[in-house]
Amino acid sequence: MRYRVTHETAYAYEELVSICHNEVRLEPRETERQTRFATLLHVEPPPAETHAERDYFGNPFHFFTVEEPHHRMVLVSESEIELAPAPEPGTTPAWDALLEELAGDTSRVGLAAREMSFASPLVPVAAEFARYAAADFAPGRPILPAVLDLTHRIHADFAYRPGATSVATPVREVLESRVGVCQDFAHVGIACLRALGLPARYVSGYLHTRPAPGTPRLVGADASHAWLSVWCGAEAGWLDLDPTNDLRVSDGHVTLAWGRDYADVSPIKGVFLGGGEHTVEVAVEVVAQR
Amino acid sequence: MADGDERWLRYERTAGVHDEMLDAEGATREPWRPLVESLEPLGPAELARRWEGARRLIRENGVTYNVYGDPRGTDRPWELDPLPLVLGPDEWARVRGALAQRARLLDAILADVYGEQKLLREGHLPPELVFAHPGYLRACHGAPARLARLTLYAADLARAPNGDWWVLGDRTQAPSGAGYALENRLVSSRTLPEAFRESRVERLAGFFQRLQHSLRALAPRHVANPRVVLLTPGPYNETYFEHAYLARYLGFTLVEGGDLTVRDRAVFLKTLGGLEPIDVILRRVDDGFCDPLSLRSDSSLGIAGLVHAVRAGNVAVANALGSGLAESPALLAFLPGLCRALLGEELALPSVATWWCGHEEALGYVQAHLDELVLKPAFPYAGLEPVFGAHLSAAERAALLAQIRARPHAFVAQEQVALSTAPVFAPEGVRARPLVLRAYAAACEDHDWEVMPGGLTRVAVAPDSLVVSMQRGGGSKDTWVCSAGTPSAVTLLRPAGAPVELTRGGAELPSRVADNLFWLGRYLERCEGAARLARAIIARISGEGADGDASLPALIDALARSGAIEEGASHEGRAFLDRVFANESPRSVRATLAAVQQLAFVLRDQISLDTWRVLSELQQDASGPSAASWSLSAARDALNRMIVRLSAWSGLTMESMTRTLGWRFADMGRRIERATWVATLLDACLVETGDDEPARLEALLEVAESGITYRRRYRGELQVVAVLDLLLSDETNPRSVGFQLAALEEHLAQVRGVGAAAERTQPERVALAALARVRLADVAELCRVDAGKRLRLAELLARTTGELPALSDALTRSYLSHAGEARRIERF
Predict the structure, then answer these.
(1) Residue pair B242/B310 in contact by the 8 Å Cβ criterion
(2) Of A58, B376, B503, B745, which one has the greatest count of Cβ atoms within 10 A?
């Protein structure tokens, strides 16, 4: 499946912004199933300079500075990518066997997986998450069905309510209140897996906004989306699951970047001087190309 | 000389620990003998007397250490014990070599963790110690580092009962205390000059010279003449004094995050003359807080884009961003193995015995021996204090063990160390107190580390304390390392008492500093105005005024209009004093002096020691606890002292400050304030007519310090026109309005010259318009009376006093605004 992705963000400031430094992750990374043909990043007012690099986790990002005083900044990113469907995974290893295998693994791949099993800025490792997850993780159970059950339960137990949380809402509060949006559910799932010692990472991306007739439009399609990825052993690798839509990720999810949690990969980060109050408008379009 | 039996420098040794001065038999150890021999004949009374002098020096130099949450306010005087810790040359040679090895090792560990990570893949370092460490800054992985990641390294050393030194902890982030060690040295060498000479103490200057050299060598660009700045979190930081002191000593500009900006992945200092490129940042801000864009987004102390500038190789940060990682106490358990793996050597200086709970056998040991151990978080999380196993109740113990078992990798246990003791001088006699020595090493160009011959010795308040910390109220000592030969005599220090320049350059002055100098000038002038008026009023209240008390209402009106007292209240003696000295309103004398003190503290690296002293004394004059019970005469004396000190400040700015932009901004602050004050005074004394006019003229000349000039010119005949000419138009009189406006116009033209703009700036136009109006005014015409009032004069004065705040605002907008606080956007 080939897609054209357009992501437009407009910031309007009450007072003049004299300078604004930005780090954006708006260029879809290449993966085993995702090929990127082009990304065009357009910023208004034009930045004094733009630098494209890769971050610690291999995600492409742009660092740019708008030095022209402005009341409004518009960022448009357009990409064309092609996605292959995810193959059916075979039988995955038991989650507890996986833990033991991982404990002594100092290979590059093993270390990269282990890195995702610890607390991170927005995801604490805490007992309450282990308690929430316990029902699905009987000893000896293969990891994939266990995680599918966990994400199914998150989908059932938590209400999707935009505006109920913000990027600053701690994931512990989300576990209490049982409401949130896609990044909250991804964080809850990641917290549960890490509480058991399992490596899990956060994936930022998009959903197909105009699915084929007859197929439902998924929740979270009109903005950036987020889901989680879990390590299922050397053979199966990382498998992506979307707790917001209760499904296993295939060729309807465009990956932008991954990291330990939202803080590692937020699509737009900026620091500006001046500005006063500001408002933001976001528009995302993911359209299948024929 | 007293014989051995009458020695006063004796004390009871603490059983079971090593004592630094006395050996097991109670005899003085070799390196201490010159000190003891020099102090014994001095006697405790003489030492106490000298020490009083030293304490005064510390207070006057403003050596402080901020204690967070201390209700007494931010700056607490630095605590220094007169008796140094003395170490012999042989012993120090061993410590020195071992410290250099340790610095090399930690640097190599950081280089690997932020690079190839072979230590993780080869199993020398458990991945938890890196990946679970909040101080592992992924954004800094792979960033280039010249010379070393640890430019300045420190270790806290303790001596075990058997006499061996142990490392309690490593400081790899932004080690503090080296500046205090320097200040301690200054005080102790002056207090005990004979002992200092006899002990052949190694000098510290050579170390700082190496450090200075290494910092400059870090510069990726401008290698011939690199610009180095010292980045401080600001005046509320506990060791701000030290930041200012080190910046001045090493010759670097002291900056806060807001003073720097990133453009095209390079770092610049915002100065009055524009953006100046910066090559090296010596940081005293914890690394996570250094960049709100790529590191902690909640930081207001950093520079957005700094990480990208470092990664692009355009600026060097010392210590490297991310080096806080090596402070983890968990690392101590692995250092011997890491030392063999990385350096192929045995670790020369052992660490305090440490068990990392992430290993099963270690966890087993910790559970079985909890009572003998101190439990700490493996990673330095704020707010988690060490826990002494022996102090726990059964319930606390169970709770702690459960916590550890849930996340074993996040905990370490350490042996409790019996610290060695050294004598501490106290009014009630000499006592033995536990100590910890912080020792320092600076990276050199040949991949070696230069160790400071000395360090910061900290002593505990209680004889059996297990924790030594300045935050908990401990004291400090100088550390004397005795030389086997003659100590080298390098010095970076200016000779004592030499005048210190107020600013270092012209256009490089950070805008924030110029702003602070501007307000310092304003506040001090505001104080002077209020003090002069209050003094004249008190003289009249107590019946000493040459002109009787007819001028009192006008003077009190002027004082009230300046904001120093409320309007319309009684001016009966007692009540008046309360109104002046007990007033807390924003423009009161008390509030203004408090603001002066605050600014002086922030400007520590910009103002000379003498200026600092003058300003400290000024504060003491007005804030004495007895102020409320002052008599009129005591108040007058205090005001006299205050005016003399303010004159001293004026003299210092005129005679000791180079004519840089900093001086101009301080002077512009003074001129704006004085012009306002004189105009207000003229308005209060000259607009009304009446029988009391001669008394008002007399008082006006006295308060405005222009009586002598007037009498010389006009022989005592008081005429309104002549008085007004002298105080409004006469630009040769430094108290006239015209003089202030002319000076402002001149300053503003010079400031513009630095930016090389051809057109007059907005503040310049405001100043010039005000000056022209005063110059063009016909004084006789201004003195014409309509309906009992000089309305033309009132109008001119009102326009002038109305324009001055506008001038101040225009000045701030044009030169001083540093655009406020950085904010962030984060979008999902």
Answers:
(1) no
(2) B503
Q: Is A34 within 8 Å of chain B by CB?
A: no
**Residue among A116, A268, A132, A133 at smallest CA distance from A202:** A116
Q: Is B585 helix (H, G, I), strand (E, B) or coil?
A: coil
d(CA B115, CA A192): 31
Cβ B828–A272 below 8 Å, yes or no?
no
CA–CA dist B536, B99 (Å, integer)? 65
Q: Do B265 and A63 touch (CB under 8 A)?
A: yes
Q: How far is residue A286's CA from residue A255's CA, in Å, rounded to a whole number?
A: 12
Flag if B263 and A48 touch (Cβ within 8 Å): yes
Considering only CA atoms, which of B777, B168, B215 is closest in space to residue B435? Answer: B168
Q: Which of B338, B287, B8, B18 is nearest to B140 (CA)?
A: B287
Q: What distance in Å separates the CA atoms of residue A133 and residue B433, rounded to the nearest whole number?
A: 53
Say whether residue A21 is in contact with chain B using an 8 A CB cutoff. yes
Q: How is residue B32 written in tokens? A: 């201490």
Q: What are the distances in angstroms from CA A180 to CA A283, B168, B266?
A: 20, 46, 40
Q: Which residues of B touch A62 (CB under 8 A)?
A: none
Is residue B275 less than 8 Å (CB to CB) from chain A?
Answer: no
Q: Report the first-to-last Cα separation within chain A, whole angstroms.
A: 8
Q: What is the rounded CA–CA span in Å between residue B453 and residue B92?
A: 8
Taking only the tens place, the pLDDT of each residue in B97-156 is 999 999 999 999 999 999 999 999 999 999 999 999 999 999 999 999 888 999 999 999
**Peptide bond just before B510 cis, omega within 30 deg:** no
A28 CA to centre of own chain: 11
* Cβ pairs bridging A and B (under 8 Å): 108
Beta-carbon contacts of residue B207 (< 8 Å; ≥ 6 apart): B440, B442, B450, B451, B452, B453
Q: Is the dihedral of CA A215, A216, A221, A227 positive or negative?
A: negative
CA nearest to A106 within chain B:
B121
A107 with B121: Cβ contact below 8 A: yes
User: Which of A49, A55, A76, A118 would best serve as a mutation to test chain B binding (most B beta carbons within 10 A)?
Assistant: A118
- What is the distance between the alpha carbons of residues A160 and B352, in angstroms, rounded to a whole number? 52
How far, in Å, CA of A266 to CA of A260, rounded? Answer: 11
Verify whether the Cβ–Cβ distance A49 to B122 is below 8 Å. Answer: no
Chain A CB within 8 Å of residue B139 CB = yes
The packing angle between helices B589-602 and B511-541, to 10°, is 150
Of B120, B264, B406, the CB nearest to A127: B406
Cβ-Cβ contacts under 8 Å, A55 against chain B: 138-139
A163: contact with B, CB 8 A cutoff: no
> For chain B, how big is the Rg over CA atoms in Å?
31
Q: What is the token pair recorded at B370?
A: 């909890």
pTM as predicted: 0.83
Q: Which long-range contacts (CB under 8 A, 24 or more apart) does B426-429 make?
A: B427/B48, B429/B11, B429/B44
For A122-170, write each residue's pLDDT tens digit. Answer: 999 999 999 999 999 999 999 999 999 999 999 999 999 999 998 889 9
Chain B residues touching residue A127 (CB < 8 angstroms): 406
Strand B274-278 with B253-255, pairing? unpaired
Query: Which SS3 state, helix, strand or coil, does residue B516 take?
Result: helix
Q: What proportion of chain B, given as a percentage, has pLDDT over 70?
A: 89
CA-to-CA dists, residue A52 to A22, A25, B223, B262, B312, angstroms: 12, 10, 28, 17, 12
Instruction: Give the helix/strand (H/E) hosting A65.
Output: strand A60-66
User: B758 in helix, strand or coil?
Assistant: coil
B266-271 and B274-278 strand pairing = antiparallel
